[in-house]
Amino acid sequence: xxxxxxxxxxxxxxxxxxxxxxxxxxxxxxxxxxxxxxxxxxxxxxxxxxxxxxxxxxxxxxxxxxxxxxxxxxxxxxxxxxxxxxxxxxxxxxxxxxxxxxxxxxxxxxxxxxxxxxxxxxxxxxxxxxxxxxxxxxxxxxxxxxxxxxxxxxxxxxxxxxxxxxxxxxxxxxxxxxxxxxxxxxxxxxxxxxxxxxxxxxxxxxxxxxxxxxxxxxxxxxxxxxxxxxxxxxxxxxxxxxxxxxxxxxxxxxxxxxxxxxxxxxxxxxxxxxxxxxxxxxxxxxxxxxxxxxxxxxxxxxxxxxxxxxxxxxxxxxxxxxxxxxxxxxxxxxxxxxxxxxxxxxxxxxxxxxxxxxxxxxxxxxxxxxxxxxxxxxxxxxxxxxxxxxxxxxxxxxxxxxxxxxxxxxxxxxxxxx
Length: 418
Ligand SMILES: Cc1cc2nc3c(=O)[nH]c(=O)nc-3n(C[C@H](O)[C@H](O)[C@H](O)COP(=O)(O)OP(=O)(O)OC[C@H]3O[C@@H](n4cnc5c(N)ncnc54)[C@H](O)[C@@H]3O)c2cc1C
Known about the structure:
Blueprint: E1 2-8, H1 12-23, E2 28-32, E3 44-45, H2 60-70, H3 75-79, H4 84-97, E4 102-104, E5 110-113, E6 119-122, E7 124-126, E8 131-132, E9 142-148, H5 156-165, E10 169-175, H6 178-184, H7 192-198, H8 202-215, E11 221-225, H9 235-243, E12 246-250, H10 257-272, E13 276-279, E14 283-289, E15 292-298, E16 306-313, E17 324-326, E18 329-331, E19 339-340, E20 363-364, E21 371-374, E22 377-384, H11 400-417
Parallel strand pairs: 1-2, 1-16, 2-13, 9-10, 9-11, 11-12, 16-22
Antiparallel strand pairs: 3-7, 4-7, 5-6, 5-8, 14-15, 15-16, 17-18, 19-20, 21-22
Bound molecules: flavin-adenine dinucleotide.
């Protein structure tokens, strides 16, 4: 099997990179073991919410200039602070081209409502989620918080308590539907993805719209858990149209239904454009010659080699096993890439759980083009993108999805320039 480019890992970064390559006419395959971090997504994509010294960032495009003074190894700095806004714009265009509707501005973070009812800064939020331009309060003074009876991955009382503190009154109401009774027979089935499937059916949408119309009263907005349809993306719009009300969704605990929908939309767009997505396959080995990777081997294809001009490692961080912590050190298990990490195990973490953890910044070493270093030397046709990159803290700096998407755009450009 031969392609122009092969991407290993089919999460956010692999899909954005692959999509741009196929759209530019490259023959491209993505090999992906399984679920990605998108299945756990908050519904928002962070770009830059804080600097390494902890200072909050309100404008990512301004903040990145200061970031360059604090951490020259940060992927944004490597890719070029002057290219930051353009890369971000390309990432948004790629999402929207795949039918993933997002709202947000590279010049100003907005705030998303967390499942605990607090407001957190972010860059892009999937359309339909509740969001605010203010860090202090929602744009609504009164809301109805409507939950499905028996759905435990949504803490309505926490959200209500937090919203009250910010001046939004919140009424909680549980609803029931005949279709929910069936999955409620087994409480472990009451998960967001199963409930979402119920709303793929128009009858359930109609029944919910009647409940909303009956219960909403005088409230400014109705908030629901983000579990409205897996196959369908139009359920919220249908409900708003039928009820004539402002209705928004709030993130649940995982799985993230809108995150799964984003993954599906990106994958479909990639395949529509001619890409080959090999789900459930794992890259296990490779061959190299004269400083280049020539072939990779996967679990499902056995000794049938997959050849390409360029390879992109998009296997994520610890969560997706793109990085693995062993007794003797943190390793990148597929290519044995150089990994940036602390000298001794004792320096991997800080005892204060809430402080920035050194292990968060560990990752694959790369050169200015994001070509992977092995034994200190860049491999000519092997790139790294996404959560496996070294030099950033996605949690403390609020930049996880941003690094994934911007590095994907950057590397696809580098491959296309060749
Ligand atoms: C639980 C969780 C939730 C997050 N939520 C958010 C959020 O809400 N907002 C935000 O901005 N950031 C969030 N992040 C940060 C996150 O890292 C990025 O947003 C981004 O989604 C990561 O994408 P990725 O493609 O780099 O890696 P991943 O999504 O981790 O994808 C890597 C893929 O590679 C596959 N893989 C691994 N090894 C192999 C192999 N050998 N062969 C083939 N395939 C392989 C894995 O199965 C996986 O599908 C979250 C991170 C985690 C861990």
